[in-house]
Design brief:
The chain is 63% helix and 0% strand. The chain has 4 helices and no strands. Helix 3 crosses helix 4. The radius of gyration is 15 Å and the shape is extended.
Length: 63
């Protein structure tokens, strides 16, 4: 027997998602490394496969 997933309590507005830090970072990585991400899972996969580029981007954009 499996339990039903809990209800979603809150979802941000679409505009808020587009203006989030993660979305801005994803767009920056896309431009910098000439890659495209269909979704967050694709960005995550790229970050694992390209550790040096990902962490260099974090260092440059965040710090």
């Amino acid at each position: 027997m499996t339990a039903d997933p809990p209800p979603v309590l809150w979802r941000p507005e679409a505009g808020a998602l587009q203006d989030s830090s993660l979305a801005r970072f994803s767009r920056w990585i896309t431009q910098r490394h000439d890659v495209e991400f269909a979704d967050h899972a694709a960005l995550h996969a790229w970050s694992i496969q390209n550790l040096a580029e990902f962490w260099a981007g974090i260092a440059e954009r965040v710090f």
